[in-house]
Amino acid sequence: MSNIKFYYGEKVPLEMHKVRIVQKLNLVPIERRLEAITEAGNNTFLLKNRDVFLDMLTDSGVNAMSDQQLAAMMVADDSYAGSETFSRLENKITEIFGKKYFLPAHQGRACENILSQAFVTPGSIVPMNYHFTTTKAHIVLNGGTVEEIVIDEGLNIDSAHPFKGNSDIEKLKAVIEKYGSEKIAFLRLEAGTNLIGGQPFSLENMREVSTICRQNGIMVVLDASLLADNLYFIKVREEKCENMSIREITREISDLSDIIYFSARKLGCVRGGVICLDNEEWYQKMREFLPLYEGFLTYGGMSVREMEAMVVGLDETMDENMISQGPLFIEYMADELKKKGVPVVTPAGGLGCHLNAMTFLPHIPQTQYPAGALAAALYIVSGIRGMERGTMSEQRDENGIEPLSDMELLRLAMPRRVFTLSQVKYAVDRIGWLYENRELVDGLRFVEEPKVLRFFFGRLAPVSDWQSKLVAKFKSDFADSL
Ligand code: F0G
Questions:
Q1: How far apart (Å, rounded) are the C-alpha atoms in residues 276 and 314?
Q2: Is 269 in the same domain as 183?
Q3: Best substitution site from 57, 222, 226, 265 to test ligand 1's pocket, by max atoms within 8 Å of Cβ?
């Protein structure tokens, strides 16, 4: 957002875009919301959008596209092989990241499948600043093990550290010492670390990590899905980078990486996936998987219209006014919630506003999924759909033991350029009310538990009749208001 000050001193994230296409929203009555969450097995992934008021489940594939992106879709070249659209996207990727080779894929996890099949073998180790659900699942599926090397501060919810996604250099050295670099398939850095609250790494930390990896012959893989937020944070929080342009920061991050992949559902505001790199041998190795899992080399499972819009979307990501919108709205929401005493992850990160369910609902044990219970409760009292990011999002190990998550977060995603400030104020109001009535919320238990990525389709039930009590209290406080 531009440097526009308000005369009366209020800190307002002012939009540098206007809305030209809208989608009608409905807020169904609380009785229907209770029915809907019950039908969805208390899993917000299983709610129908017709029952949802503000969809804060994710920023994936739901960012607002620009007029320029929509216009670009009209000129897409849909020939099966060798399309002009592919060349335009390839050129844009080379322009921004400076990498020679580009492999298209249908989304981020498809890139993770290709990378894991190409480089992870049984016994492989993959250190990373923090795992993401689908990333870890693919690595484990290929016999590898994830080693977390995020700094301890990254897991401290109330920290003031500006770069909680940084890697701990001593932890990295210890992993190399313990396993030897030959066992390390690659090191993965996640920009805007998703599961710990959209927290960025600093350019300085990335330089250190990359130097150590290069000294030890370890490939550096960057997951750039949330790079837009990370770029913004480097620009405003890292003093030494304040005079660098977003393009310069991007290029240096790219130069420090051997392979970059991302979900274009986030970076580029479309729906697709990208892998890019310079090394020809690794390119050939990964390319073999493309026709098997994705599609021909010049579309990789993506629609050419989305690819054409990605060309524009990536270019727009280099604009500070564009990439600051998400983080500034999230900061506004987190600040307003803090004023009401609601526990949120600090400092506010990218992707969304994260509520700390462990402190919000201290009476619910992790085995009864406090973040999942908070997601269900918030939906009932507001029609807002968030996403559990805690123990429900973990999966049982080979012995059937359920690992307890480091954090229990309710993520309220802020898709870019989608919500207005009054909608954010509504969310703050209902979360504030729920916090004052938190003792009414109780836990959940699984009634149907899939083995892999259970949080997507698992079904749960409340451990008591707490949900009808919550509805009764809401009705007595809000009378006939929705
Ligand atoms: N890496 C990161 C950091 C992600 O956040 C995601 C997706 C992926 C990889 C996988 O990409 O969805 O295109 O297959 N995150 C989504 C989310 C699902 O809601 O946070 P994908």
A1: 14
A2: yes
A3: 265
Query: Low-confidence residues of the chain, pLDDT below 70?
Result: 1-2
Question: Which residues form the domain of 337?
Answer: 30-59+322-478
- Confidence at residue 1, expressed as pLDDT on a 0 to 100 scale: 61
CATH number at residue 350: 3.90.1150.10
Distance 363 CA to ligand 1 centre (A): 31
Q: Are 234 and 313 part of one and the same domain?
A: yes
Q: Which atom number of ligand 1 is nearest to the Cα of residue 264?
A: 13
- Token representation of residue 370: 């406090």
308 and 328 share one domain: no
Greatest CA span in the chain, whole angstroms?
Answer: 67
In the prediction, which pLDDT does 269 show? 97
CA distance 468 to 115: 47
Enter the DSSP assignment of 18: -
Residues 228/267, Cβ–Cβ less than 8 Å: yes
Give the separation between CA 317 and CA 249, rounded to whole angstroms: 12
What pTM value is reported for the model?
0.96
Cis check for the bond before 370: say yes or no (omega within 30 of 0): no
CA–CA distance, 249 with 256 (Å, rounded to integer): 11
Pocket lining: 129 vs ligand 1, CB cutoff 6 Å: no
**Quick check: is 8 in a domain?**
no
Name the residues annotated as catalytic: 80, 132-133, 223, 266, 389, 455
CB burial of residue 128 (10 Å; 0-12, 13-18, 19+): buried
400 Cα–ligand 1 center, Å: 25
Q: What is the pLDDT of residue 453?
A: 85
Question: What CATH number is associated with residue 181?
Answer: 3.40.640.10
Where is the domain boundary, 260, 292, 319?
319
Question: Does any domain span residue 14?
Answer: no
Asked, for residue 7, whether it belongs to a domain, the answer is no
Q: Of 266, 298, 319, which closes a domain? A: 319
Residues 156, 206, single domain; the answer is yes
Q: Are strands 125-128 and 145-148 parallel, antiparallel or unpaired?
A: parallel
Ligand 1 neighbourhood includes 192 CB (under 6 angstroms): no
Would residue 397 count as lying in a domain?
yes
What is the full DSSP assignment across 40-88? Answer: TTT-GGGS-GGG-SEE-S-SSS-SPPPHHHHHHHTT----SSS-HHHHH
Distance 109 CA to ligand 1 centre (A): 7
Q: Are residues 400 and 468 in the same domain?
A: yes
